Amino acid sequence: MARDGGGRSKRESKAGAFFMATLVMWTVSVFFEILFNKRSELIPIVLGFIFFQSANVVVRNFIARDPLFVNTCISLLHSSITSSLVVIVMLNQWMIIGTDKMFEHSQLVKFTWPLAYQALCFSCGYFAYDQLDMLLHRLYSGFIPSILVHHLVLLVCFTLALYRKVTINYLILTLICELHSIFLHVRKLRRMAGLRDARSKSVKAEWVLNWLTFVFARSLPHVLITVKLVKDAPKFDKGIELPLALLGMAGMNLLNIFLGIDLFKAFGKERKLHKDHSDHNE
User: Fold this and answer.
1) Residue 200 CA neighbour count, 13 Å, CB half
2) Are 131 and 155 a contacting pair, CB within 8 Å?
3) Are 44 and 159 in contact (CB under 8 A)?
């Protein structure tokens, strides 16, 4: 058993080294663009990283020192800020040109809505921070940690779009899923704090909001974005934009299926614990 644990630890160390190397290469690429190609519009990526790293220091020194708790707190902060920015960007554009025009192919691919570029940069800075935090504190498991793969794919897709200044609005639309992530992180923090009473009104309300946002802020938008991409496929120029977008959305939809299964299992488990507790009291 000990040998197996040692082998697992060695494999995870190799995975950590690989993802750390990719993060370093990504960092070098971003700083090269900013410093040598004079891409000052990318500075919000760095500011985003600094902001979330600073928030990490504050939480670690004044609230709790457990790495997983701190990481989840910052993830909740990111989801709250990013989802708010996405809603602001979309409402602003809706008031300017209306829904009929804002979802046209040219609007989503070639134009950039006000604040959309900065919001995407800021979120990109968070994913870089979170990748580093998980690597430093070993907040991952497995030979191919899905969370590290997820962050790497997002960093690659986001930065390529930011470098080329295309499909920014499409990516902003995908980030509406952060509304659902808020309640995922709230649930995780609530359980870490020992609050697991399924009978409480707050827990019931949390589950209602969790399911509503899972359907209307994550699953349905991602499916609609995928349908839109397929429908507008002939309108894309030849290049990597369409294949990369379709591949990314296929991955997101697949992750949403797995997430939905996990949520259903967690919901059933909490209901079962509540029923067993009620039967025991009777």
Assistant:
1) 7
2) yes
3) no
With a CB cutoff of 8 Å and minimum separation 6, the contacts of 152 are 19, 22, 23, 131
Encoding tokens for residue 83?
């989802």
Detail the DSSP E strand segments found in the chain. none
What digits encode the pLDDT tens for the residues 155-196?
999 999 999 999 999 999 999 999 999 999 999 999 898 877
Token pair, residue 76, equals 């909740």
Q: What is this structure's pTM?
A: 0.92
Long-range contacts of 234-241 (CB under 8 A, 24+ apart): 235/105, 235/109, 236/109, 240/160, 241/109, 241/164, 241/166, 241/167
- For 97-138, the three-class secondary structure string (H helix, E strand, C coil) is HCHHHHCCHHHHHCCCCCCHHHHHHHHHHHHHHHHHHHHHCC
For residues 87 and 80, what is the distance between their CA atoms, to the nearest angstrom? 11
Angle at 10 between CA 6 and CA 12, to 5 degrees: 115
- In angstroms, rounded to a whole number, what is the distance separating the alpha carbons of residues 109 and 166? 5
Contact 153, 95 (CB under 8 A): no
Separation CA 129–CA 135 (nearest Å): 10
Q: Which residue has the tokens 């609530």?
A: 190
- Give SS3 for 232: coil
One DSSP character per residue, 62-88 reads: HT---HHHHHHHHHHHHHHHHHHHHHH
Q: Is 145 helix (H, G, I), strand (E, B) or coil?
A: coil
Non-local CB neighbours of 47 within 8 Å, separated by 6+ positions: 122, 125
Strand, helix or coil at 229? helix
What would the pLDDT profile of 262-282 be if each residue is shown by its tens digit? 999 988 888 776 665 554 555
Q: How far apart are CA 65 and CA 86, in angstroms?
A: 31
